[in-house]
């Protein structure tokens, strides 16, 4: 069973990118790269790298790019310096929302994140994750299907998969109108969590997770109650802004939010 050592959370680096802030002004946003020790990883797997909600304009002013690419460059430097294990010995994990409009004429936006996912696949042993409500995977159902069949890429939406001895379950998107991509009615979202939790994954991946948001209107007690049934398990999520990345539910379920963070989980 995977277990997080909460006292081990420390910042080992950072990236920054331009973003249209909630005030409407454009500024630079700093994103921490955290290292966290865990126990229970199978032999031969050095760790997981989790990222989420990297929505802004990275790269340079003349050559903007999505911030995921900046994060991968910085992680490669940290690995070369020995600060983290080699990336190819770890699994890359996305908990969603890796897209942003690069010219920043509006905040966020929705668009294709196959590029960031495939870049992660080139760096890591495999990549697994869920879609955020701003993520798209191609422009047609055929492109979406082809992407999901890519070797070593595991986009989960109600499924479970075992990778290198770790069992992941995942639900993409958020609670909302199912006429829009990656959204479910609240009852259906809750039912999916119930079904996956019954399968006892080591790690449950959600975009909209059980964290207590700084914005009370974005917290969801129903998600929290159902994640609590994953007794002793780990939930990795994003979507909601939180001051602190870690939370532990009364049942022992551990929750780690990668919202606007890059988190490297390594064997203790």
Number of helix segments?
5
Question: So what's the overall shape?
Answer: globular
The major β-sheet equals:
8 strands, mixed
Strand content: 25-35%
What are the secondary-structure elements, in order, as H or E? EEEEEEHEEHEEHEEEEEHEHEEEE
Overall mean pLDDT: 93
In angstroms, what separates the terminal alpha carbons?
13 Å
Judged by helices, strands and strand pairing, the structural class is: alpha/beta
- Specify Rg, calculated over alpha carbons: 17 Å
Uncertain stretches of 5 or more adjacent residues: none
Can you give keywords for this protein?
268 residues; alpha/beta; 8-stranded mixed beta sheet; 6-stranded mixed beta sheet; 20 strands; 35% strand; globular
Architecture overview:
There is one protein chain. This protein has 268 residues and is of the alpha/beta class. The protein contains five helices and 20 strands. The protein has helices spanning 67-80, 114-123, 141-148, 186-198, 221-227, and strands spanning 3-4, 10-20, 26-39, 47-52, 58-59, 64-65, 90-94, 111-112, 126-129, 135-136, 153-155, 159-163, 166-171, 174-175, 183-184, 203-208, 234-238, 246-248, 254-257, 261-267. Strands 1, 2, 3, 4, 7, 9, 11 and 20 form an eight-stranded mixed β-sheet that branches. A six-stranded mixed β-sheet has the order 12-13-16-17-19-18, covered by helices on one side. A two-stranded antiparallel ribbon has the order 5-6. The longest helix is centred in the N-terminal third of the chain and has 14 residues, at 67-80. The two termini are 13 Å apart.
């Amino acid at each position: 069973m995977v277990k997080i050592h909460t006292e081990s959370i420390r910042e080992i680096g950072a990236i920054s990118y331009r973003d249209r802030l909630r005030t409407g002004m454009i500024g630079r946003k700093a994103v921490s790269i955290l290292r966290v020790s865990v126990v229970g990883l199978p032999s031969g797997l050095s760790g997981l790298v989790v990222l989420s909600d990297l929505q802004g304009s990275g790269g340079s002013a003349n050559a903007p790019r999505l911030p995921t690419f900046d994060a991968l460059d910085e992680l490669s430097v940290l690995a070369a310096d020995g600060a983290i294990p080699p990336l190819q010995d770890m699994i890359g994990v996305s908990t969603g929302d890796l897209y942003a409009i690069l010219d920043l004429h509006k905040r966020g936006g929705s668009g294709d994140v196959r590029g960031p996912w495939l870049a992660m696949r080139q760096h890591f042993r495999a990549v697994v994750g869920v879609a955020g409500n701003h993520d798209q995977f191609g422009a047609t159902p055929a492109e979406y299907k082809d992407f999901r069949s890519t070797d070593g890429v595991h986009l989960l939406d109600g499924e479970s998969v075992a990778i290198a001895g770790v069992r992941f379950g995942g639900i993409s998107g958020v609670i909302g109108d199912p006429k829009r991509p990656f959204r479910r009615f609240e009852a259906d979202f809750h039912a999916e969590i119930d079904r996956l939790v019954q399968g006892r994954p080591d790690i449950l991946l959600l975009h909209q997770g059980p964290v207590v948001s700084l914005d009370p209107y974005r917290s969801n007690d129903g998600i929290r109650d159902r994640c609590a049934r994953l007794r002793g398990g780990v939930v990795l999520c994003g979507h909601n802004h939180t001051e602190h990345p870690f939370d532990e539910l009364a049942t022992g379920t551990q929750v780690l939010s990668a919202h606007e963070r890059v988190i490297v989980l390594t064997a203790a």
